[in-house]
UniProtKB/TrEMBL annotation, chain A:
It comes from Kitasatospora saccharophila. Keywords: Signal, Transport. Belongs to the bacterial solute-binding protein 1 family. This is ABC transporter substrate-binding protein. Pfam families: SBP_bac_1 (PF01547). Residues 1-25 form the signal peptide.
Automatic annotation (TrEMBL), chain B:
This is ABC transmembrane type-1 domain-containing protein. The keyword 4Fe-4S does not apply. It comes from Kitasatospora saccharophila. Its main location: membrane. Keywords: Cell membrane, Membrane, Transmembrane, Transmembrane helix, Transport.
Length: 458, 341
């Protein structure tokens, strides 16, 4: 295990780092800031900087931030708060890492926690809170968070205590399709589950090369996660939020009739030999196709539809026209049971603090405002906030706009990705493995369900 | 030039902070290197000044010290801590005794993992060494052997992850109606097998398909080392054997192999150790699904994906116990060989 080695090396490096930091900090303080503010601790900010008055008084301080977001996405983040940092003089030292999920616990355990961390899974947040190092957010952040629909507060909370405000939201309940192909064949975008089933049958009967659905659950060690999404969509769309929540807390087990029925619905859909796997082969190829490749047959008309999250937009080749009349676009996956109000399954990222220094809290406060969210949305596409204060006309990308509309819809039933909320032994272990075996080896629903239940920590 | 002057400030600031970050990182590196050199100089200076009774012990301590320190910090402490953690629960908070080992011994999932690991341990090193020996014998007799050797040795330069990606593409499978993408499937179609299986899903064949990647990478290493050993056999011995009437297979089995036995075993155990630790191939090609999981990958999954440090550490200890005898045997053999030379 390499843990102590890494921390040991980091400590060795820390000495020259501190020296260098001190030197550069001294240098940067002497130069005047372009934004005009950032002077003495209590001086009033003027001009364009006036709106940052609430965060003033911490000039010359540094706040470290650690996250899984890499360049170029992280450049957009830094750009979105650059005016804030210029005006307030608080420098945000951002560090992105591929190994964020495994390194954050290591850093926190080694006493080397960042001031702030952008955590994409509530499960990881809960684990960090258990370590006792996460600091509760300031009052202003708690108030700012109220602009998100109430269910989000629960996902930023651990055991009923609110710890981390959401920064971004993404939507999983989407079906990717080709508007051009649909138009050419005269297909309508389905509005209900029955329409969806009828359309799939119609495409399957039409013969030819095209199958109605394609899918891929391959993703290295995380193989299986797209299958967990399919099950989650069906559970949420069949029974609504309450059963979904009970399922997450294991009050409703996987072997419960409700969940096995949902698995049967998934089986009739994504394991239907007449419906899948367009462009790849039989049902089993779903297990060996990577989720990144899964949608490519849509472009060659070998597959009509793919259920994947909004972030799948990044997988389309360069030059693909994404939009309501383009090569590809997405529609909202309809609820299996029409009684359930617009089910939206999604994910999000949360800002957790490991320090309560005033400048850290100032950053936390700013990043929870709708002003910052708007600034980030304006910077570049690919970022959606469920903050009600963000003007939806700011979204330039059609997928972002579609996601934002569903995510901020007060009537929608929003729920977080269930596997992210279950214990890691299940949500990042047994469920992936068992559902993969279900697809790859034709394992029975009963065995698949009982295997997952058996892995639930006692 | 940015036309919006309000943006100019922040944009400049951003560029500024990037330079600053780069400067800090450069400063870190330079500081670390200078610091290291400084410490070395001080140490050697002190060692040079020491005279008399203490000079020899001091020299020993100074020379051995850094290496020993790094070994303790980088190997011994983590090892002890891993053993310690293996007796605790998932969050390293509660002592659970041998529960994690009990889980490893009784769970059917781990049984499959251990079985696969054993299969890897036996098949991959034997195949790589055997193939390497065969190639060493054949290539040594060919003209332009340096070129062939370089070509066969080349995969050693490829990382296991890259090799796995290559083999994954080889095994890629499409349904009977589609154009095949993978080489293996296409070859099968070319010889008239219309609907070849999805290779990576075909148990237990898939385990061997994964091992091929390891064999492909390690054969070159085995060949080069064994070829050198074969060439080191004194000509008198082979000649004497020939005069006694030994040829071909007999010469190979009764003279060549016994003469290079030590090297053969070292090569075999070295590849065994690499095999036991290999998790990149499984991780890249199947993620441990379809009945191909091995110990090293399961350990990673338990520790860093399911955040169960207890179980992960227990598996690490089991893996360590499996590798340790091989390492010891390997070192003992190397020493014996050095002593005879």
């Amino acid at each position: 295990m390499t843990t102590p080695v890494t921390t040991g090396r980091r400590r060795l490096l820390a000495v020259p780092a501190v020296l260098a930091l001190a030197l550069t900090a001294a240098c940067s303080n002497s130069s005047s800031d372009g934004g005009g503010g950032g002077g003495g601790s209590a001086s009033a900010l003027t001009g364009d900087c006036a709106k940052y008055q609430a965060y003033a008084g911490h000039s010359g301080t540094k706040v470290s931030m650690y996250a899984s977001i890499l360049s170029p996405e992280s450049d957009s983040l830094e750009k979105s708060w650059s005016e804030f940092t210029t005006c307030t003089g608080i420098k945000i030292v951002y560090e992105g890492s591929n190994d964020f999920e495994s390194q954050l616990p290591v850093r926190v355990a080694g006493g080397n926690a960042p001031d702030l961390a952008i955590i994409p899974q509530p499960g990881l947040l809960a684990q960090m809170v258990k370590s006792g190092k996460v600091v509760k957010p300031p009052q202003q952040t708690v108030e700012n968070e109220n602009k998100w629909s109430p269910v989000w507060k629960q996902y930023g909370s651990v055991n009923g205590t609110f710890y981390a405000a959401p920064m971004s939201a993404n939507m999983k309940s989407l079906v990717w399709y080709s508007p051009k192909a649909f138009k050419a064949a005269g297909y309508e975008v389905p509005k209900t589950w029955n329409d969806l089933v009828a359309l799939s049958d119609k495409i399957a009967r039409a013969g030819g090369e095209a199958k109605p659905w394609c899918g891929g659950i391959g993703s290295g060690t995380a193989t299986g996660w797209p299958a967990t999404d399919w099950l989650e969509e069906v559970v949420l769309g069949t029974y609504g939020g309450d059963v979904y929540d009970q399922w997450i807390s294991h009050q409703v087990k996987f072997s419960d009739e409700k969940i096995t029925t949902a698995m049967k619905t998934v089986g009739d859909w994504m394991q239907n030999p007449a419906w899948v796997n367009g462009g790849f082969g039989d049902v089993k190829t779903i297990a060996t196709t990577t989720f990144q490749d899964a949608g490519t047959p849509i472009l060659s008309n070998k597959c009509a539809m793919l259920q994947q999250a909004s972030f799948y937009r990044a997988q389309w080749p360069k030059g693909t026209n994404i939009g309501p009349d383009g090569d590809v676009f997405a529609f909202h996956l309809p609820a299996v049971n029409p009684q359930v109000n617009t089910p939206v399954e999604g994910g999000g990222e949360f800002l957790a603090a490991f320090s309560d220094r005033p400048e850290v809290q100032a950053v936390q406060n700013y990043l929870s405002t709708s002003e910052w969210a708007s600034s980030r949305v304006k910077t570049s596409p690919g970022w959606v906030s469920a903050n009600q204060g963000v003007d939806k006309s700011l979204y330039t990308d059609p997928i972002d706009k579609l996601s934002a509309e569903s995510l901020t819809d007060p009537a929608a039933t929003f729920r977080f990705d269930a596997s992210d909320l279950m214990p890691a032994a299940v949500g990042s272990g047994a469920e992936w493995k068992a559902l993969t075996a279900w697809f790859a080896e034709g394992q029975s629903i009963q065995k698949t369900a009982s295997d997952i239940d058996a892995a639930w920590p006692q | 030039m940015p036309t919006d002057t309000r943006l100019a400030g922040p944009a400049l600031h951003l560029a500024d902070s990037l330079w600053q970050d780069a400067a800090i990182k450069f400063g870190n590196t330079a500081g670390a290197v200078l610091g290291f050199l400084g410490v070395l100089l001080a140490v050697f200076f002190a060692a040079g000044r020491a005279t008399g009774r203490f000079s020899r012990p001091l020299a020993v301590v100074l020379m051995l010290g850094p290496a020993a320190l790094l070994l303790v910090v980088g190997l011994v402490v983590p090892l002890l801590r891993t053993v310690y953690l293996s007796f605790y629960d998932a969050d390293a908070a509660k002592f659970v005794g041998g529960k994690n080992y009990g889980w490893a011994a009784t769970s059917s999932q781990i049984h499959d993992v251990l079985l696969n690991t054993l299969l890897w341990l036996v098949v991959a090193p034997v195949a790589a060494t055997g193939l390497g020996l065969l190639l060493a014998m054949l290539v040594d007799r060919m003209r332009g052997q340096a070129i062939y050797k370089s070509l066969i040795f080349m995969p050693m330069a490829v990382s296991l992850v890259a090799a796995s990606l290559i083999f994954k593409l080889l095994y890629e499978s499409r349904g009977s109606g589609q154009n095949q993408v993978g080489l293996l499937s296409q070859l099968a179609v070319a010889v008239g097998w219309d609907d070849p299986p999805n290779w990576i899903l075909s148990q237990p064949l898939n385990n061997f398909l994964l091992m091929s990647a390891m064999v492909w990478v390690q054969t070159g290493f085995a060949m080069v080392v064994l070829s050198a050993a074969i060439k080191a056999i004194p000509d008198e011995i082979t000649e004497a054997a020939r005069l006694d009437g030994a040829t071909g297979v007999r010469l190979f089995l009764h003279v060549t192999v016994p003469m290079i036995r030590t090297t053969l075993v070292v090569v075999l155990t070295t590849i065994m150790i690499i095999t036991l630790k290999a998790f990149d191939i499984v991780r890249t090609m199947t993620g441990g699904n379809f009945g191909t999981q091995v110990l090293a990958n399961e350990m990673y999954s338990q520790s860093f994906e399911q955040y169960n440090t207890g179980r992960g550490s227990a598996l690490a200890v089991i893996l360590f116990l499996a590798v340790a005898p091989l390492v010891v045997y390997n070192i003992a053999l190397l020493r014996k060989e050095r002593a005879t030379r």
